[in-house]
Amino acid sequence: MMQPQTAAQRPEVQREWVTTAFQIDGYRVAKNLGLVRGIIVRSRSVVGNFGASIQRIFGGNITLYTDMCEHAREDAFRILLQHAAALGANAVIGVRYDATEIMPGVSEVLCYGTAVVLDQATG
After folding, report:
1. Domains in the chain, ordered, with CATH?
2. pLDDT single digits (tens) 31-84
3. Which distant-in-sequence residues (6+ apart) come within 8 Å of 80 by Cβ?
4. If 0-12 CB within 10 Å is exposed, 13-18 middle and 19+ buried, where does residue 47 land?
């Protein structure tokens, strides 16, 4: 089993090297480091629920919930990048999101993919 690297040793995974695809044109997977994930659990506040209830009366996009969901996805994504970097990856392929309501008003957001080391393709 591969040991996580120290902060000084680990590369940073750049956002442009994270994709839902399973390959990046011009590069090859030199090493597959396995599954990585970022998980966050969020709850809606009473104030947020009240504001969203008012927005719901008028219809359309409920921006308070949209913002909450976007922040949860961004946090899960950031944790995914940290996990991948700790393993020595320079890219993450096959990235997906999943969300589950754990209990009313409490949701889990999971971001997962495969941590890899990419090399420039030859030939």
Report:
1. 15-120 (3.30.110.70)
2. 999 999 999 998 765 555 555 556 556 666 666 677 888 999 999 999 999 999
3. 18, 36, 37, 38, 92, 95, 111, 112, 113
4. exposed
Model confidence at 86: pLDDT above 90: yes
What six digits make up the tokens of 96?
Answer: 């997906």
Does residue 1 register a pLDDT over 50? Answer: no
Q: What is the DSSP string of the chain?
A: -PPPPPTTTPPP--GGGB-SSS--TTEEEEEEEEEEEEEEEEE--HHHHHHHHHHHHH-S--HHHHHHHHHHHHHHHHHHHHHHHHHT-SEEEEEEEEEEEEETTEEEEEEEEEEEEEEE---
Residue 118: other Cβ atoms inside 10 A: 18
pTM score, whole prediction: 0.77
